[in-house]
Design brief:
Rossmann fold
Length: 241
């Protein structure tokens, strides 16, 4: 199995509780991969495994280099940025302080300032509120801040965990549109875990369905969208609006 990011026979869990059971797939550089599935399927654990937050068994390779078992800070230096479910912004800090934290491992000051302007271009509302405390932002604005902070790492791989959670349909559409633009303009590889299958498949090239820690369905986004009967039998979700 070849790809920019390759996962082979991945097992992961928490102590004695095993969550992932032999997950394998690959993602090409610059592609968007959607991970779908019901609650408890192991989607969040998969993203945590990819950024080094949980112990794994199996093989992870990034751009041809094995990175299995690397610590989260090492994975971040290798260009893997994780936007967790619940956003994880630092409420007392200002918007700009939160963004600069995303670049804390970088040493290129000029590049950091350029990327700060780039994030503000993607999310103009963050520029308007850059001196305000992050805790005072709306849910949608906090999600934009979390994505913006991840972009300050200048990631090669962006991991998004339920980015639409708690957001209005209008804000969700806007956020997914920006993620699509980031992918197209920056050629950032994106892996998105999302309950809203229609939105996720709308920006993805490939998709995998997880159930009970195993991949039960894989294909291109178009194939998954076209196979609504199979998808519904596994998930009970709609892939069409």
């Amino acid at each position: 199995m070849n790809g920019f990011l390759t996962i082979t026979d991945l097992h992961a869990g928490y102590g004695a509780a095993k969550v992932l059971h032999g997950v394998s797939f690959s993602v090409e550089q610059g592609a968007v991969c959607a991970i779908l599935g019901p609650n408890g399927a192991g989607k969040t654990t998969l993203l945590r495994a990819l950024c080094g937050m949980v112990k794994v068994r199996g093989t992870l390779r990034l751009a041809g280099t094995e990175v299995t078992g690397r610590a989260p800070e090492t994975m971040a230096r290798l260009g893997v940025a994780h936007v967790p479910e619940g956003r994880g912004t630092f409420a007392p800090l200002t918007v700009e302080e939160n963004l600069r934290l995303g670049a804390s491992s970088r040493r290129d000051r000029t590049g950091t300032e350029t990327d700060l302007r780039r994030v503000y271009d993607y999310f103009p509302i963050l520029r308007e509120k850059r001196r305000e405390a992050a805790g005072g932002l709306s849910g949608g604005q906090q999600q934009m801040l979390a994505v913006g902070r991840a972009l300050m790492l200048r990631p090669r791989v962006l991991l998004l965990d339920e980015p639409s959670l708690g957001l209005s349909p209008l804000v969700t559409q806007e956020l997914f549109g920006i993620v699509h633009t980031i992918n197209q303009e920056e050629r950032t590889t994106v892996i998105v875990v999302e309950q809203n299958a229609h939105l996720a498949l709308g920006i993805a090239q490939q998709a995998h369905v997880l159930e009970s820690g195993r991949i039960v369905l894989s294909g291109t986004a178009d194939q998954i969208k076209a196979d609504e009967q199979v998808t519904r039998s596994y998930l009970g979700i709609r892939v069409r609006p």
